[in-house]
Amino acid sequence: MKLAVLVGSLRKGSFNAALARALPALTPAGLGFETLPSVGLLPLYDADIQAAGFPEPVAALGRAIKAADGIVIVMPEYNYSVPGGLKNAIDWVSRLPDKPFAGKPVLIQTASISLLGGARAQYHLRQILVFLDAAVMNLPEVMVAQAQNKFDAASGELKDGPTRELIAKQLQSFAAFVRKTQAGAAVQA
Ligand code: FNR
Question: Of all helices (H) and strands (E), which one includes residue 123?
Answer without folding.
Answer: helix 119-131
